Amino acid sequence: PIYLKKTLQKIPYLKQISLLAKKNNIQLWLVGGFLRDAFLETRKNLTDFDFCVEENTFRFARGFRKCAGGKLITLDAKQKSYRVIVSKGKEIYTYDFTQRRGSNLREDLTLRDFTINTLALNLNDFPRVKVLDLLEARLDLAKRKIRVINEGVLRSDPLRILRAFSLAGIYGFRIEKRTLKLLVKCKSLLKRISGERVREEMFKIFAVDNCYRVIKEMSESFIIDEVIPHITRQRNVSQGDYHHLGVWRHSLEVLFRLETLIRRKLSSREEWADYFNRSFANKHTLISILKLACLLHDAGKPLVKRIKNKKPIFYAHEKIGAGLMDDVCRRLKLSLKEKEILKHLVSWHLRPGYLADQDYPSSRAIYRFFRDTGRDGVAVTILSLADWRATRGPLVDNKKRRGHERVMFGLINRYFEIGRAHV
Q: Among candidates 383, 396, 302, which has minimal Cα distance to 349?
């Protein structure tokens, strides 16, 4: 495609890489995500490039580093995989060189995760552009379909189970039925994967504007339970007549309501965008942490459920739930700051509702709320708003709900208009 040719021209040092391969008489292919995104014409700034090298991979990577400068690091000595990081202007580019697996390119490509990642470009022919499509990648890209190559690639790296969902979310693709069955079949293998790797794949999903669709599919296949076991306990726990859904389905609905709220406000309010897009130690945004909190804000309810006067009560569930976040953060290897925010969101998600029980809360009550919640106060209030909107049982008073929302939006506006130091 013309777009691919233009995009290839923007890859720094691609001509030098091709000349280096020809000089050393080594077969070299550009593969993977770059070609996928180029065919999709994503228009995003492409800075990561993967290369399949026939042989002598370390020597080739070292030769490229000498040519382009930058830093050479070993990704996997056993797999003979190396990375060269090069700064050019304000951009940082990464070039990954991995030795070909198998006796030919086709064998190497069949060891990759999904068909959409199996396009290849022979750089020995460069600048002539001829894309090799040996596994019907372009057909699946056209059909917007995630298709696993075989069950073995999931067993060799079970993180690919989550990657199927993150790719589906990022590109708006669907996971084909056979692939979904294999993901479910292999889901228990996720226990093998380090918390850091699981965390990064999950936060790719949370970063998607409409991650509700993806999380819902992960829920229906029970794959999300392998990542966060506390979700299993929330399933099939009924609630009182203020709720129309059980605990877990309600939590999913809260996520849906939150994303709807955030989408509308971030496009029209600059201060909202600045607040919710700020990131922390692992470069995860506050929005992403808030989405995780939606799924877990009621995690304490199954542990405290009691029946009083023939009605279920969940006394102190927010405090019990906040305590459970220690285990969630340990599993996902969240930073101390991310852990602090997640615990605050779960622990305080009822506070704005209590405040809104007063038609016009006093300045002193508002001051105490922001004194306790600090900069997390707006996020807590948004979570509470989404929680309220996801609660539509027969006992809900819609007039009272509108009053609650007025108070909550008033809290948020006051934070942004006056500033945290003065609320």
A: 383
Main-chain phi, psi angles of 338, to 5 degrees: -65, -40
Q: Which amino acid is at 347?
A: S
The pairs formed by 368-374 with CB atoms below 8 angstroms and a separation of 24 or more are 369/411, 370/415, 370/420, 370/423, 372/348, 373/344, 373/348, 374/420
β-strand pairing of 91-99 with 145-146: unpaired
Cβ partners under 8 Å of residue 340, min gap 6: none
> Element (H or E) spanning 97, and its range?
strand 91-99
Q: How is residue 326 written in tokens?
A: 């220690």
∠ Cα 89 95 98 (to 5°) = 175
- 121: exposed, middle or buried (Cβ count in 10 Å: 0-12, 13-18, 19+): buried
147-162 pLDDT, tens digit per residue, is 999 999 999 999 999 9
pLDDT in tens, 282-304: 789 999 999 999 999 999 999 99
Question: In a 3-state reduction of DSSP, which class is residue 83?
Answer: strand
340/318 Cα distance (integer angstroms): 15
